[in-house]
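Q: Got a minute? One more chain.
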Amino acid sequence: MFGGAKDTLAQLAARLAELYKEIVTTTVQFDELRRYTKESLDEFKRLLERQSDKIDRIERERITAEAELTARIKFLEGRLDVLSEKALHIAVAEIAAGYVKRGGDGEAVKRLTDGS
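A: Always. Here it is, folded:
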């Protein structure tokens, strides 16, 4: 009578030991997985921060380059305006000189500037 109970008790103890071992194994695996996940997330965060810093640096460089190009364009436009105005003055002076050489008088030059 007690033999069957001893066997059942022994089986129950063995089963409890097996379950405890599985719980410990699962806990260790879970802790390892949690540690690996945390390390992975930390690494991802570092990479994301580096990428963000790189994007910020590239954006600053783009803004600087754009400002330099805009300044250069404005400078060249100003020079073009000055050169165009000089060329226009030279052309008008040459036309007026040629008109006078061909015998135009002061009234003819005045009519030329009036467009008549």
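A: The chain is about 95% helix and 0% strand.
Q: Perfect, thanks.
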